## 1
Amino acid sequence: MIKVGIVGGTGYTGVELLRLLAGHPEVEVTVITSRAEEGVRVDELYPNLRGHYDLAFSTPKACELAQCDAVFFATPHGVAQGMMAELLAFNTRVIDLSADFRIKDIDTWEAWYNQSHGCPELVAEAVYGLPEVNRQAIRTARLVACAGCYPTSVQLGLIPLLEKGLVDPSRLIANAASGVSGAGRGSSVDNLCAEVADSFKAYGVKGHRHLPEIKQGLSEAAGGEVGLTFVPHLLPMIRGIHATLYSELQVEGVDLQALFEERYRDEPFVDVLPAGSHPQTRYVKGTNMCRIAVHQPQGEKTAVVLSVIDNLCKGASGQAVQCLNIMFGLPETAGLNSIAAMP
Amino acid sequence: MIKVGIVGGTGYTGVELLRLLAGHPEVEVTVITSRAEEGVRVDELYPNLRGHYDLAFSTPKACELAQCDAVFFATPHGVAQGMMAELLAFNTRVIDLSADFRIKDIDTWEAWYNQSHGCPELVAEAVYGLPEVNRQAIRTARLVACAGCYPTSVQLGLIPLLEKGLVDPSRLIANAASGVSGAGRGSSVDNLCAEVADSFKAYGVKGHRHLPEIKQGLSEAAGGEVGLTFVPHLLPMIRGIHATLYSELQVEGVDLQALFEERYRDEPFVDVLPAGSHPQTRYVKGTNMCRIAVHQPQGEKTAVVLSVIDNLCKGASGQAVQCLNIMFGLPETAGLNSIAAMP
Amino acid sequence: MIKVGIVGGTGYTGVELLRLLAGHPEVEVTVITSRAEEGVRVDELYPNLRGHYDLAFSTPKACELAQCDAVFFATPHGVAQGMMAELLAFNTRVIDLSADFRIKDIDTWEAWYNQSHGCPELVAEAVYGLPEVNRQAIRTARLVACAGCYPTSVQLGLIPLLEKGLVDPSRLIANAASGVSGAGRGSSVDNLCAEVADSFKAYGVKGHRHLPEIKQGLSEAAGGEVGLTFVPHLLPMIRGIHATLYSELQVEGVDLQALFEERYRDEPFVDVLPAGSHPQTRYVKGTNMCRIAVHQPQGEKTAVVLSVIDNLCKGASGQAVQCLNIMFGLPETAGLNSIAAMP
Amino acid sequence: MIKVGIVGGTGYTGVELLRLLAGHPEVEVTVITSRAEEGVRVDELYPNLRGHYDLAFSTPKACELAQCDAVFFATPHGVAQGMMAELLAFNTRVIDLSADFRIKDIDTWEAWYNQSHGCPELVAEAVYGLPEVNRQAIRTARLVACAGCYPTSVQLGLIPLLEKGLVDPSRLIANAASGVSGAGRGSSVDNLCAEVADSFKAYGVKGHRHLPEIKQGLSEAAGGEVGLTFVPHLLPMIRGIHATLYSELQVEGVDLQALFEERYRDEPFVDVLPAGSHPQTRYVKGTNMCRIAVHQPQGEKTAVVLSVIDNLCKGASGQAVQCLNIMFGLPETAGLNSIAAMP
């Protein structure tokens, strides 16, 4: 059994890790930390876990975490930076769900996250945790920086087009919508049920922190800088991201359906739906799947890609477990076999 | 025009007062206070009000509030107590939406609200603001303590039975469910959309603060102490209270439908639905109506009353406006004519 | 009092007309028709209307409808066509909420609606019911074909840019999302609560019937053909449309905020929010308002306009009442003064 | 591998069976029937199943179903009756999720279901499928009639009290609320999202078909006839039942918490929460668990039991799989190990 620790286990990505790992045949969670809830049993805070864990939150200590084969950081940005060097020195491998090590350009990171980076020397080494792009590098990585939720849904939808140079990389549009769990478990008036449960809005149009992350990934796929307008929206529901992606075809007569099917043929967690489909977020809820459809409305030059994921699963904790499986040579789908419930 | 002030205008009952009073032909809101939002325009915080108010929040000052003919307190419990004596001394009439002056027995209030009462000398004078019971006293009251949300829905459903002595007063059950706006606009993890938007639960089964208020009202109707089990539940929606009320008939052959129709014949805001109906909370959303149905399943001895209100309207701000209308001799429905939107 | 009739009153736009007209000081609803519900009282089907109407559904007869000064068609497409010539011959003025007379090119209509047009001779005369564009023509129209829901939200958001030639008209993108009431009151598995209440999807990407209607309106504003990709989405909520509109600026240094404020300065139902705002559908729920914000993310060449309406109100019945007010010389806001409830 | 067939696989309990059985280590679904969807792949109708089944719906034929070791009926009431005798004659064991064989008194069944019973001769043999009561009989049953959704939640909450004679059996109250998936996948105006997604109501107060089923089970537990008032309510959400159960204690000084813990100590799917808890429907969503809390408010004589299940899982398909496991000597939790997702 692989021993894992979770730092910051009280948040939504923490409890999602616990849910997924409870069913993982090769993993045992041995430490879970939270300063605020020290001593509280995890199944007291999350009664859905009753019967599955006999574990309480503890204060994070590097020496204890270092007993683990792998440590997940399910923390807000800024936290993993502070402990990373120490942990890696113990030969513990780290999977960071936060944004701390995702962006290669440190100035960009500091500008968007509005603080100095606490561990710039490890940024270059960190492997961006999007297995469909970086599987090989993830295998041997000491530090994986898991892709964010919007970035996963947008990149998986656009990279087949960009890798082949089929669309104009200077005018990409990513219109995405997320369930409110994406905002995390922090108390806030803005995310009260009474504020958001019966309404819909765009937010962060001026600039959202996932913009530079997405641009970095798309630029790699395109082999050069891309122009991207990214507008996130808040859905009156809990889980799910739906990305509607617009790009302008610069080549005629391409079979987009075949292109996508070919690109993702061997991917266990990317499912290209039949031509003409409209993926629904509920098709992937609670699972690590990304389901994608590609359209070319009226046969005109705009390609429209629809991509859905569960923001807490393929957009966070599921992706982290997928990376763990890759890092430790386990079957990539271990612990990730559940099926979305419909209805 | 009657000049009114609102203390604590940033909460949900505050903005609901603003919405209702914007359409009131005889009232002008001249002061609205909030320490936290001093200087902020009300339509900046609540853009639904754009075009209807040219007003900003100010810090509450008794001398300014005293310029008003009437002042609403839309504050958490404990606030109105502190300013009440001073305001009344200015001859301003006060309509308190909070729980401060609802309970006549001060020890009971202090036990349930877990603090000393700051103004016990005015409790006896305060008139309980449930017009269907106290219309006459409200007319001349200096201080009206508006009935709470659950208490309104439960009392309107049970008093016809208790006033006539038709049911056993010792075994009353009030099973009620409220939308999450009843919890107010305070930031809290428990009321995040991600926590409550797709679930249902009972809460406060051990004892909810509305229990003594309801028992006080029902005991008056029954002419003696009542036994009541009250279980509130939290609905995954924003507005609306539904009370399902069980009592045991101790008289045979009563025409319950006729009884309820007769009791509320002249009430502008209580609508007894046709026999066999099931009121839905959406029938009253955004309005000051209480809609009621009464059943006697299988003709057996349990009477089941179903009663719905909008917790923020008939359960709070609408009731407050109704009281204002009564106090100032205005048509009782002024400003309260809107119709629930369906769907 | 102006006497009005409503054909097809059992659907969602029908009951919304009843709600709005109940509060209209100059209008009396004298006839409401439904074949399926003949003889049923409107307040039996819609208990929210109890106390406001003493009216039952009747089978539609032209001779009775002709007694009205104006008749609303709140019917599915294909119905108004059949009665239009006869009604107009009686000098009754007609406001059609359906799609029957919106599209000027009859071949286009027939292709998208997949049937022959039943009254092509009146299409040219029909005035497209979008007051912000056609107010003058509406005044004297015999037949107003009210703008659809998506078309209203999209056109109001894009025409200020197109009228001034500021954006490339060949690459417009309208990404819109609607509450499920837009699908109407027909029974359908696809719109069951269990199917859509906790999910989000695009639909009709291949081509939605509102596409030709929107293109027609935008082309008029642009003074020439436009290229438009329109992707509608289904929101897990009941009311509200949010349009996110992307266009490419071809002129530098324009003050978009000033442009929009100027364009809509005198419009009672279009509200340009302060710079940097994100309109929420709840800001307009139950009202005839369209609230708009305009952004230019990172100062780059893509303009992003956000536009919200209530699909049943400004997107249907409210717009119809607004047109009625214009046609009969009433204050344009009569019956349309309500304020959205928050929360 | 045990071969199973599913009759009526397009409904919500059918797809839930498919979801659960996809993860069952000892079961293979070999036949799934639907007249309406003959030839359609199950993963076309339910894309959440993509990658898990290579199966299409077929027309039900007894000879093909008879090849299975067990057959589930996931049909509306009235269907299983017609095929039951023939199937049992083939020595296929049957698990009926419908109401056809639940009620022992045939007159009662016919009165409540308003039709003649098509197979009265097998009613006596049928074993009521509530493992916590009938595990022994289920083991060897040829025909299991699974307990209904409300009946499961209510019986599990009340039988510990009734079995011990602690409460007055003549005045039981079951106030229950269900998500809308309980109404099934039939098209209906009443269950449209626009009708129910933002409202709450009681229904069937006059008498719901689950009433005689519940009374039958409670009477067995009590050892004599019970008096029960049962009021179901419709929640604005998809999955979950919450029962709030009121009964009058006739014995003093009982430790209710200990009683419940003792009664369910060895039950894998009944979890008695710590004293003072309030179970939430989300604690059990997608799982076969029933979580229960018991209260005695203010120490008075009314016991209040709170019981939550997932109506499609422990209330239908999960319970059916649990019965299958018992019938075939498999581990009782096989295929039923998933954990509810929070949030």
## 2
Amino acid sequence: MEVNIGLIGFGTIGTGVVKLLKENSGLIEKKTGVKLVLKRIADKDITSNRGVDIEPGVLTTDTGKIFSDPEIKIVIELIGGEEPARSFIIKALSSGKHVVTANKLVLAKYGGELHKLARENNVRLEYEASVAGGIPFINALKEGFVANKITRITGIINGTTNYILTKMEEGLSFEQALDEAKLKGFAEADPGFDIDGIDALQKLVIISHLAFGSKILMEEIYTEGISKITLEDINCARKFGYNIKLLAVAVNLNGELELRVHPALLPLKHPLASVRNENNAIYIEGDAFGAAMFYGKGAGQLPTASSVVSDAVRIAASLEGSHQAPGLFWGDRKLKPTGESVSRYYLRFPVIDQPGIVGKIGAILGKHGISITSIIASLAGNQGNEGNVEAVTHLVKEKNILASLQEVEKLSITRGPSVLIKIEE
Amino acid sequence: MEVNIGLIGFGTIGTGVVKLLKENSGLIEKKTGVKLVLKRIADKDITSNRGVDIEPGVLTTDTGKIFSDPEIKIVIELIGGEEPARSFIIKALSSGKHVVTANKLVLAKYGGELHKLARENNVRLEYEASVAGGIPFINALKEGFVANKITRITGIINGTTNYILTKMEEGLSFEQALDEAKLKGFAEADPGFDIDGIDALQKLVIISHLAFGSKILMEEIYTEGISKITLEDINCARKFGYNIKLLAVAVNLNGELELRVHPALLPLKHPLASVRNENNAIYIEGDAFGAAMFYGKGAGQLPTASSVVSDAVRIAASLEGSHQAPGLFWGDRKLKPTGESVSRYYLRFPVIDQPGIVGKIGAILGKHGISITSIIASLAGNQGNEGNVEAVTHLVKEKNILASLQEVEKLSITRGPSVLIKIEE
């Protein structure tokens, strides 16, 4: 089934959506039976080269061509900011079109009325990409955890500040870390939106709306950014066994909500404490599922586009009126023979310790094309001259390592079967 | 909208579903507009007390009463094992009923034909609870990551073996760890299904069907359990910087699939290496979203029931023919005033170092009802008598800590504003 889409906003994320549909729309159709067709792309700038080929007639500066086209069922809004984005979403919903957006500000401020408008027009409003792009958290909250009373959500939901705090853990000052974040494209020229916690605040409002069903105003939430955090704070925290993270926190204690965005000390053993660099993670607790964590990129052109397109597919699939995707087996079936599998390995040979053992074993491994990153020979405590030779290999084919083991086990110096365990990285 | 459900299998998970619906069906209705009604529960044993009240006439030993009831739209199958579970699922689908199941074996072996049958009858077959119960991974794979070519999945998807390996890391032998797992209810009397990797294998087949669309036979997958892993292996691995985990691995390299279940060494810094005890986690990589991880309980009565009920709600919501849930604001709106927020805190007071400082500051904190878990006074290197007093508090109300700070800052010994950072745990 073909479903036509109109895209408003041909910036970084919009270009990512175009790229992703070009690359994977065949795959999406095989999986779901849905073929997404980008019928129109509207932007103020339709001349700049974004590095993707667009068919003639698709680009327009006139959003009206999207709203008035009865063939377009889904509008993807990716211009960001309050206006005209909000008006475009309203126009799309009022025109009976489903809307996919990543617009945090509009959702945080006007989520309630936009949902109402969508309902009145019997269309859907989806926004997986608005929080933690690439990580399917929003729909987990709406669907996967629907049977739960959500009791607590603790999130690292701003990649810029997490990157800066990670670099400060590594010894950079706040200013140096901010400069590096700008250099890497993780921070804007005007970084206040991220640094001051506003981005995390908007996302927390969206999450709270879905988790608790309560109307939350942004100005009601205590919000503190990371600009006051010093290297001394981070080092002192570490001394007591903590990392400092910018957290968005929502606690539902007997129906009373506590919502806040601020830097906080996290015990090093907390699952969120080890979330580094620009990554996002959300730790969520509920009365039935217990606790769960979602971790991933949280931003970037293709991760965010992945979330946007997943919403469009979700909507398109629901239009069919049927309940089933094409079924399970849409893919090729080409299995790699076990012996051809390539891994690094840990090896342990129980041996009778005598001079030249490491050389003998090393020679056999070498003969089978196996190179070693480290090798240790050791006596096994008080068992006389019984010892072990342990080695960690570079990448090697399974059949080669098995052949070498057979050969080593035939040596007179071995005193039992060798141990072989794959290494995953 | 009311949707009637028939439950087949009133064991641990079935009882969890009944409990969860009793507890949260009002909440579910507020969130989604869907009211799930458990019209029939079929089990061989309808006399044992499961600790939940069932209305008269609901319990039956005759599954036919479910299949022949036109009012029942969704059948939840939770008896497990191959037969009669498979026949019940077939009968339900053929009767035009949507099916929710957690049955790994039946899905791994017969997933393809059951999907086909569901499609032919225009009904849905959902099985979020079959892998990593409580963690909404299956629907993330089907929907959230739909726009991606999945390149790699690495999962800790058997809680029993992860619990045993964690206890071995703590120094227990395999047998001791297994005994403790049995004692805690994480391992069955006959633990082979978990220990030998069969449970993980069945789940890997289900995941691979969805991720790659390839028909996979269980006997094609290299499967090795943990019974050969010794304390020595774990200690040796640690020496080289690795933990040992039972992994289910699926790699898609240029369309060639590599699938395997086996114990593996994971570098300690790998996100999966720190997944402890009975918890599950799945690390997934795709061409657009990059990498993401899901973490959670993975098993247990209520986590699994949470996944089962989420599937039933998902189906029920799709029956409505409309596209919208009731909208956003279904919940109460009671915000906790910021000052009433209770946390532990880290405090740092920059001071001019002189005898009695810790006592003075401690006295002020005590006056405001703040108790301290640790306090350190230190000279700040080579700045003469300038130093810091640092403290970590017990739980305290925000307004009390702010009041105490004001008072400390008035002391003549302070040389600048104090630092106050919340601790989350």
